[in-house]
Amino acid sequence: MKLTRLTLLCAMALAGCTATPDLEPLPGSLTYGETASSRKTQAAPGTKIQNRFLHQGKYVYETYEVQADHTYKLIRRSVVDSLGD
User: Fold this and answer.
1) Staple 62 to which of 11, 14, 45, 51, CB 3.0 to 4.6 Å?
2) pTM here?
């Protein structure tokens, strides 16, 4: 019984660690300041779209996924302080 509880507790803890919160758009993001229906694309659902821009002196790389209603969902972001330094 204790082993079952311990296993369940560990599984719950790991599930909380792997969940990724929704990313908020930054100025320069494709979806910044827009409502969900204002930007649509003709790309097929599931298509990945890349975006790169400068934000507060850092390079920001974003990946979007096209949803079934042809809107974008921000799924990944990475920030680089500077290139080549």
Assistant:
1) 51
2) 0.65
